[in-house]
Structure formats: C-alpha cells, structure tokens
Amino acid sequence: MELQPPFRKIIHVDMDAYYASVAQLDNPDLRGKAIAVGGEGRRGVISAASYEARKFGVKSAMSGTLAKQKCPHLIFVKTDFARYKEISAKIREIFYEYTDLVEPLSLDEAYLDVTENKKDNPSANDIAREIRQRIFDETGLRASAGISINKFIAKVASDINKPNGQKTVHPDEVIQFLEELPVNKFYGVGKVTAAKMYNLGIFVGNDLKKKSLEELVNLFGKSGTHYYNIVRGIHKSVVKPNRIRKSIAAERTFFENISSEIFMIEKLEKIADELEKRMLKSDTKGKTITLKIKYSDFTQQTRSKTTASFMQKKNDFFPIVKELLYQEKLQNSVRLLGLSFGNLNTIITEPIWVQLKLNFEDY
Fold this sequence. Notes:
This protein is α+β, with helices and mostly antiparallel strands. The chain has 13 helices and 12 strands. Helix 4 (81-96) crosses helix 5 (124-139) and helix 10 crosses helix 11. The radius of gyration is 23 Å and the shape is globular. The two termini are 21 Å apart.
C-alpha cells in the first residue's frame, strides 16, 4: 500500500545530551570527560549523561551508585534548571523564526511543522540543517533532527544519526522504513507490550503488518487500532503549538526512607509550598489533587480526590492531602512523596490546519 498525498513536513529537533552538554559548555574542564548530571550515591538518580559516560553504560534514571560502578572515573555535576531554561528559550526563538507551529516536548526537544514556513523554503531537510547550525552558532550546543511526514516517524528518525546528525525519511521511503523498524521503537509499545509481541513472533513492523485489524484489537484492545494504523504510516496527530498542560506537580525523594506519618506531613508541607508556588506562577488552578507515594521497594501508589471547585492555594488543598495520606495504611516505608494537580482550568484551543499537496522532491 502506498501512502497518498498531501504530506506534511515535520521536523523533530532533539538536543544531544542536553543537561550534560550545558555543563560541559559552561565548564571547559569537563569537555571530553565522562560526566553525569544528578545525585551521587545510593539515593542519587542520574538525570543525564555525556556521551563519554554513555560508552560505559551510564544512562538517565540510573542510580548514582550503579553509574559509578560502571564508570569509576565518572564526574557528577549538579542540575541547573535555570540555565537549561535560559538556553532552551534561545533555541525556541530560533524555531519561531521558521514557523509558529512549534510543539515543545521538554526543554531539549520539540516538533516543528514546516509545511508552510516563514523562510519560504520548500526543503524541510535544508531547514533542519540550518536550524541545527544556528543552534550551534548561537548557543555552542549540538542538536540532532528527524524529518518526515508525521511526528512519530520524525521522532524515531532523529535518533538514527545521533549525535549531531539528521535523518530524513522521504514519503516514498516511509513504508519500507516502518516495515523494518523494530516493534519496541513504535510509539505506545513499552517493555511489557514488546515482550508480548515477541512471544507472538512480532519483531519488526512487517511482522506487525501481517496481523489483521481484528487480530490486533483482540490481542491489544484499543491500542490494536493504533498499531494497525501506525505501521501503515497513518499517524494523524498534528503539531500542537498551544499544548495544554494537563498537570502540575512537585515531589521529593528522601535520603533515608521514612515510615512516620507525622514526619511525612512535615515533608508534604514543604512539597505543598512548592506546588502552590508553581500554581501561582503559571496562574493555574485545579480540581483534582493527587498524592504520589513511592515505597522503599520501588512500588508506587497514587491517591486522588476531585473537588467541585478549583483550588490553587495551599490552605485550600492541604487538608485534602492529609486526608489522602490517612486514607489507608501505608504498605511500607516511603522513599518519595509527590503532589500534583489535574483537571486544570486551562482553555483548550484547536488550531485550524490547511492540508497542502506537496511534491516528494521538496523533502
């Protein structure tokens, strides 16, 4: 089956080892060395690792202790979110010089729809190359990019030639690209689903494509329809410049596990102060307050309550937090507590999209 135009031109820009690269940018002594951003020791968690550290198996979400075992000469540096946000803002300013259709996913990555762009450049590949060069010239940091007809393929493509590279999946290459793609690379396929697919003999997209829609729905429920479409290059999610924030959260990991509920209340007081601060800063209110509890055995539990009216101030929502904590007996000692607000008072706006008929050679 061949995909039919019109096609959109989507770029996924992903900064290379962003947090670690910022640290190396600001401290020349760290350049070329194995560094990790995050906490050292048993309780520390790695937020990011330089490519020099990744060669030893150090990666994000790994404990500081394990990272040090894998790379004894690893250098730990503290996070600096103010600096990350500062540079991220500069990078986004570059994006907006090319298109207003920018969907940030985090401080270090974003989707851009350049189907129509402010430079009147018909080549998305050239735009991506120009953006990456400008990022380097203006910030000193490297970025990689993926270019294709939809967000999913662009995101997968941006990983292929990392670091400091880009990959274009041309419209007439999409089907073959998806057929050869390992199923664990497909959006929505996590470790559990991938293992299930492997047991069914589904290892790459072509194996997935052999399954009928009915079979996939029977095997994977509603997700089966998604898998059926995505392996055929059908992914209709548009670049959303007005992304709606669905939740605001604050949490804290403790150096030592805690088991006293009274002590937990003290910790939650401070977390609630931070959550209120974030709610006020973003001028946001919410109706659903959620308590997140991560136990010492790394199991996790959430407890939520939705109110009839919006809340923002700690004085209004903290009594509910205490109620949630005492709702049932704790299963174990606790290593992390978090609070978040959902059901926010954000206004959802839908952009108007114009589909254009595009030529393959413009990619």
